[in-house]
């Protein structure tokens, strides 16, 4: 049986991503430039982990793919 905490975390992540994507699309359609600004900010995004799992580039790539996905939907 799956870990209930893991299941809830996955569900929250999916819901949050959906709401974030729709918000990004909505704002970009009304105020062009949001996605460009977000893309330019990615160098400041990092992984908060303090162990061997820390990977700033992986976190930045996830954000980059999210921005690219939002651009495709507009």
Automatic annotation (TrEMBL):
It comes from Fulvimarina endophytica. It comes from the Bacteria. This is Uncharacterized protein.
């Amino acid at each position: 049986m799956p870990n209930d905490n893991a299941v809830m975390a996955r569900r929250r992540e999916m819901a949050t991503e959906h709401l974030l994507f729709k918000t990004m699309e909505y704002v970009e359609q009304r105020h062009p430039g949001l996605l460009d600004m977000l893309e330019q900010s990615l160098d400041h995004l990092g992984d908060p982990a303090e162990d061997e799992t820390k990977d700033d580039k992986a976190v930045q790539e996830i954000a980059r793919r999210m921005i690219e996905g939002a651009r495709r939907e507009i």
